[in-house]
Task: inverse folding
């Protein structure tokens, strides 16, 4: 059963076809408007082929400029949830989602905001751009990489923003179809004299790695990773050793107890026990792997996704949570 504190319901009041592969969902939360910051995401729970699946989707809206809460989803080839949302959800349907979370948010600065997006990575970058334009007097410069012109999401939304904030927003487009993949020289050329500006980066992993390594500095780099790469290794290389206590994992109808291994995350332990709990980024960023501790405690190496209240209620990111002393029981809801 869903914990009412964790998953809320929202009605999809409108769907916008952004490109052939991307749709924006306008959401009306049943408990009233969500309070959120630009750049944050919600974890959606959808039932696909009889299984509950969790996926994170960022807001494309910004509280400073939009009355409506919107998220934009791009189809991933053979992707279970993105295809289900795009093909099956209709206006009037209800979705389950958590409150907004995440730390890919605007940091105070006086320099222009540099945004780098690849494909669906434009979703939180658009949110941050809108927030910056509406809530500050900073300039915004975006480098948007897409497969081709037709794949570029929010083309007209960005043109409208540029017209609404004259001289404050510039968008440079990189289309793989014309010039191949983005390269480091193009990133540095784009940055130009703004090396001290904060850079916000979101896109496929190779795009992010390229941009992060090409940025000349000394500006700060903030990155949002959507996942989709090979899962992290099963164990972290630490040799198992004697440890007191057990880890009990409840996942659906399955309940398994195994001995603790030092420095093993709860997710790693669950996999060692033969279970396949939900996970995505495995970096403490997306909350897909969250579960509730009903016995014992655990320390998270990184938590960029759960709120303080959720942690106080016993929720833990299992990809980051290492059990403390004694036995622990963790329940994937
Ligand atoms: C914090 C956060 C915010 C996100 N915000 C958005 C958003 O605003 N819009 C959006 O469209 N997506 C967003 N995502 C990605 C989204 O959560 C899903 O990972 C994506 O929709 C694929 O899920 P799926 O169930 O369709 O594919 P799955 O069934 O999980 O995967 C199918 C195949 O595609 C690969 N794959 C999984 N994810 C990706 C990916 N992102 N790109 C390329 N290949 C992938 C997998 O390795 C697998 O081979 C976000 C992810 C995170 C962690
Ligand atoms: S899998 Fe993303 S926070 Fe654990």
Result:
């Amino acid at each position: 059963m869903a914990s009412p504190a964790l998953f809320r319901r929202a009605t999809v009041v409108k769907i916008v076809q952004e490109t052939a592969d991307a749709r924006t969902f306008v959401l009306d939360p049943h408990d009233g408007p969500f309070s959120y910051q630009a750049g944050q995401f919600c974890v959606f729970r959808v039932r696909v082929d009889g299984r509950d699946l969790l996926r994170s989707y960022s807001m494309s809206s910004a509280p400073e400029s939009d009355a409506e809460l919107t998220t934009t989803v791009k189809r991933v080839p053979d992707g279970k949830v993105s295809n289900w949302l795009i093909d099956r959800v209709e206006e009037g349907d209800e979705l389950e989602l958590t409150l907004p979370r995440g730390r890919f948010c605007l940091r105070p600065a006086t320099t222009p905001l540099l945004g780098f997006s690849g494909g669906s990575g434009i979703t939180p970058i658009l949110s941050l751009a809108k927030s910056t334009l509406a809530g500050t007097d900073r300039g915004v410069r975006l480098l948007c990489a897409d497969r081709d012109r037709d794949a570029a999401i929010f083309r007209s939304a960005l043109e409208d923003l540029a017209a609404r904030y004259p001289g404050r927003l510039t968008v440079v487009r990189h289309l793989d179809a014309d010039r191949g993949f983005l390269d480091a020289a193009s990133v540095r050329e784009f940055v130009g004299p703004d090396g001290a500006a904060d850079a916000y980066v979101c896109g496929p992993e190779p795009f992010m790695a390229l941009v992060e390594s090409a940025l000349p500095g000394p500006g700060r780099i903030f990155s949002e990773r959507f996942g989709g790469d090979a899962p992290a290794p099963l164990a972290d290389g630490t040799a198992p050793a004697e440890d007191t206590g057990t880890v009990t994992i409840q996942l659906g109808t399955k309940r398994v107890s195994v001995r603790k291994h030092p420095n093993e995350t709860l997710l790693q332990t669950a996999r060692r026990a033969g279970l396949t709990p939900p996970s995505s980024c495995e970096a403490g960023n997306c909350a897909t792997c969250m579960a509730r501790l009903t016995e014992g405690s655990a320390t998270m190496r990184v938590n960029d996704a759960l709120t303080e209240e959720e942690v106080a209620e016993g929720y833990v990111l299992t990809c980051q949570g290492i059990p403390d002393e004694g036995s622990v029981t963790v329940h994937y809801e």
